[in-house]
Amino acid sequence: MSENNHRTIIVGGGISGLTAAAYLTRAGHDVLLLEKNKECGGLLNSFSRDGFTFDAGARAILNAGIIRPMLKELEIELEMVDSPVSIGIENDVINLDVETILDDYKQLLEKLYPESIRDIEKIISKIERIFKDMGILYGIDNPYFRDMKNDRSYLLKEVLPWMGKFMFALRRMNKNNEPVESYLENLTSNQSLIDIIAQHFFKKTPTAFALGYFYTYTDYRYPKGGTGELPKAIVQKIIDWGGEIQTDIEIVEVNPAEKIISDKDGNTYAFDYLIWTADLKTLYRILNTQGLEEEVTHEIVEQKEILLSKRGCESVYSLFVGVDMPLETFSSISNGHFFYTPLKEGLGEVHKSELNSLIENFNTVSKEQILQWLDRYFQLTTYEISIPTFRNPELAPEGKTGLIISTLFEYDLIRKVKDANWYDELKTEVENRMLETLSNSIYPGLKNKVLFQSSSTPLSIESVAGSSEGAIVGWSNESPVPVVHELRKMGGSVKTPIPHVYQAGQWVYSPAGLPTAILTGWHAAQNVIKTKK
Predict the structure, then answer these.
(1) Angle, nearest 10°, between helix axes 117-137 and 191-198?
(2) 53, 189, 215, 282: which is deepest, by most CB within 10 A?
(3) 359 and 328 part of one domain
(4) Half-sphere exposure of 130 (CA within 13 A, CB side)
(5) Is residue 304 part of a domain?
(6) Domain final residue, candidates 170, 196, 218
(7) Strand pairing of 61-62 and 268-276?
(8) Measured between alpha carbons, how far is 370 from 432 in angstroms, rounded to an integer?
(9) Domain with 448 in it
(10) What is the mean pLDDT of the chain?
């Protein structure tokens, strides 16, 4: 048993925790960051196998007016390249360019759904408005990551003229918070057309966030060594500035009255301030409220009940494949970041009522019924395919290619399969269906060229990242989210009813993503810095 005293402790070494630690150490604070895994990075990391590099979390990094200025402010040199995106449906593929993306997408939809040309015109018109607003939001370096006191030229020439446009764009974006599915239903009755657009996103994603992706598709960057290079670079900067990072540390109790946290090995760590960037349900489950004032405890209990009644968003199933096929085979089809739907039919009720029925009646449905559902799902779903060697040929052996093939997948189904003791069998069935579907469509012969394959399931994400329901973007939008969900209020998202404790990461703001994880980490750090002053 040991006892360690640190002014600020950060639990969780994902991008939000690393951001908070970087800004605190930069400001001269005594910081200890604790991470449950062997390496930091959380949902942003890379791994290697047999000479292939794969990205286990995000497939690319959205700049969003944040990444470039943050790296510059933190004095981090990280070589990054553009990561262009393609969208494909059946045999038609378009490579997205910021100047032509909406025209190209419109032509793609009109070719596939000629009976809905007028509806498509209405949809593209709505997307165009959101596209322009996203361009305003992300159009300049985020002022949080620029030295506004000393860079008066940037303030006067860039920020002040931008602020008015920003406020109007933000107001319009906040009004577009209707679920994307129902929003599209008001524009067309063609269910396949609705699905082919909406099934790219998590269920009931707010419209502005979902359709805003047509802008973000043009704003992706990629570190030449893999996405895991970004957290590695921030880790090194934290160490250079005197911060301490300990890994393989799992926190099992938080005692705010005593200002102490405890790990699974019985070690305790005293803090002045705690920034919790890990799973939010876990924080409230392990919270020891003994010694707190009754009013504070009551507020904490209320918040705990709300959070534990909510669910994380849909999760993701990812297949990592090394194939004996040259990069040219794939570069002749698409860019290295590729959203592909094998059939224009769309998922329809396959991932709604049919899936819900399987889950609700799991104890009475047969394994064969579940496998038949998998057949339909993997033929109709949308795949996110990432090929790291597009950005750097050194990320796979010469003449070979690594693919990361992902699709949205429901945690509850795979949880029940695991409990029924056929989890490994399901993984094999899913992997085979993914390879079979792509071999019969966009990548002929793929399944016959596989050198090795492995997969990550929602349960893998839950286990490794400690993320409730295997979520990768925080809370589900299928019921009201229990956290801040307006951009202008993000600064308040890091506050908790727990004394001396702040929060950051994917669980504290919705919709979540890499940019908001960074921003909440930054806000949490600023709160501590201001309090210390």
Answers:
(1) 20
(2) 215
(3) yes
(4) 24
(5) yes
(6) 218
(7) unpaired
(8) 15
(9) 314-468
(10) 96
